[in-house]
Structures are given as C-alpha cells and as structure tokens.
Design brief:
With 298 residues, the chain is an alpha+beta fold. The protein is built from 9 helices and 15 strands. Strand 9 and strand 10 form a beta hairpin. Helix 5 crosses helix 8.
Length: 298
C-alpha cells in the first residue's frame, strides 16, 4: 500500500505511445496497469523506458499527455493556458514558488487529484524527490501527537494565488488536513492556508499551527527513507491526496539544467471527499478567469 510501483515501458509500448494511434493493442497492458495502480494499488507509479534525449522533448511531452489522459482530464497550469508546465529554475520569476525555484520544497499536496512529473534532465547536484504515504503520516501523528488530530481533521480555509483573479479568493468551508476512512488522505498546503488567513485578516489558530508543526516534522522524518532521484526519462504519477510530495534543493550548471515536465489531472477514478474535488475546480476557474482578462504569468 505504501510503495511506489516501478514499471518499465516496453519497446512496443513506447512505439505505440509515440505513434498516431497510441491507444492500440500494443499499449493495452500499460493502460490497464496504470488504471489498476490507482484503483486498487498504491496509487503511485514510476515509468521508465522513454528517453527524451533519443525521441526529443516534444515527443516525450506528447507521450506524457497520452498517459495522463488515460487517468484523467488535464488542467491548465497558468493563465497562459499550458497543459504541461516546465518545472525549472527561473531567476527572472520574482514570485518563483515551487515551479521556478531551486530551493527545497517541504512535503505538501497540490490541488488536483493525480499529479505527474516527467524528468527531461536531472540537476547537476541535488533535486531528489520524495513521496510520503498519507497512512504513514496519520499513524505517526496519532502515535506521537494524538491530542492534535482533531484540529488537523477540522483544518482551515484555503485561499488562492494572489497573482490570479478570483471570484472566491477564500474557500467557503474549512478544508481538513487529515481525512479518515478506509484509505487515509491528506490535504496540506501551507501557502494556500496562509493566503486565506491573510485575506481574512487573522493568524492561523494556535492549535492548528502546533498541529501543522508536528505534521511538518513527521513528514520530514518520514521523507528521509523515501527520497529518490528522478532520472532522465522517468515519469512519475501519484494520487495527490494519498501522498505528500516534495524535493531537496538543487544546483544547476550551464550544461546541466534541471527540467521536469508537470501534469495536473482531475479524475473520478478514485472517490474523494467533495471538498477535495472543489480545490482543483476552484484553481482551474481562477486560471480561466485570469486568462479571460488577458493576464499572463512568467
């Protein structure tokens, strides 16, 4: 339940993905394995066997999009309208959050149901990724900080990115951080919580802030044995609400600049609380609104 599935993309499957008819018989088993992983498996899978230095980055990007559409519906990632974003250090982006920063990213969730990262080039140094299973996080917090579970299950409001136009800059309801059930889920993004608190003119409640400190420390400890390097050509899909994800800081060299391709997917493959489905729908609406008003981001 808590291990990433690793699967090679076989040569005939790779050829099918790169063809004009990627959904043919040659790709049926790969298609089925992806679906099974998310419906009945660990909900995280690492694919190897496509190499952008051989097939070209454009073909690698198209293959990623084909795979993603088997699992869900891609969402645009900015008012610029791209379905696939380039995750790389961009010193000209003054906001430079995770997408364009080379700094460490602590464990967190994003806002869509399934995420993917495809490695075009690793960094010259650093940039290791990690996934922490939600159920391990729940167990660790319950064992060591059980008194704080109630406030994490209550959660807090979510805001939006202030550079986006929004009809609903703060969620109407609180979004739980931890969800109990047959499968434990997690929704933790400190950035959007802070944006909500700022919009509401208040600080995060003290009990919640303490609970999040415990969660952050637990995630950091759990991530130490779950760190791995995405190699050139690796494609990683995971269920956003079943795993925290993050990465270590990295350094580029002029001839070795880290570049990943990122995909956001909304999907009904996996049941999730309606309030989690709302997170993806809300940020999608903000991106579309900002796009319609003619705004563009770096």
């Amino acid at each position: 339940m808590g291990e990433i599935v690793r699967r090679a993309v076989l040569p005939d499957e790779a050829a099918a993905l790169l063809s004009d008819e990627p959904d043919g018989a040659a790709s049926n088993e790969l298609h089925a394995d992806l679906i099974t992983c998310f419906i009945a498996g660990s909900r995280a899978i690492l694919l190897r066997g496509l190499y952008p230095d051989r097939i070209g980055e454009a073909a690698f990007e198209r293959a990623l999009l084909v795979l993603g559409k088997w699992l869900g519906v891609p969402s645009i990632q900015s008012p610029n309208g791209e379905l696939i974003a380039r995750v790389e250090h961009n010193p000209d982006d003054v906001q430079a959050r995770g997408t364009h920063s080379h700094d460490e990213l602590q464990g967190h969730t994003d806002l869509h149901d399934i995420l993917a990262l495809a490695c075009v080039r690793p960094a010259e140094r650093g940039g290791e990724s990690f996934l922490v299973p939600a159920h391990e996080l729940h167990d660790c917090l319950l064992a060591n900080h059980g008194e704080g579970m109630a406030t994490l299950r209550e959660g807090y409001y979510f805001g939006t990115n202030p550079v986006l136009q929004s009809d609903h800059p703060v969620s109407e309801d609180k979004v739980p951080v931890l969800f109990d059930g047959e499968r434990k889920l997690v929704c933790w993004n400190g950035y959007f919580m802070r944006m909500a608190a700022q919009s509401r003119g208040e600080q995060l409640p003290d009990a919640l802030a303490r609970g999040l400190d415990h969660l952050r420390a637990a995630a950091m400890n759990l991530s130490e044995r779950r760190t791995f390097m995405l190699r050139e050509g690796d494609i990683l899909f995971w269920h956003n609400w079943s795993w925290l994800h993050g990465r270590t800081a990295f350094q580029d060299q002029s001839n070795q600049r880290r570049r990943l391709l990122r995909l956001w997917l909304r999907t009904d493959l996996i049941d999730r609380p309606p309030i989690l489905a709302q997170r993806g729908a809300r940020i999608d609406a903000d991106h579309r609104l900002t796009q319609s008003l003619g705004y563009r981001l770096p």
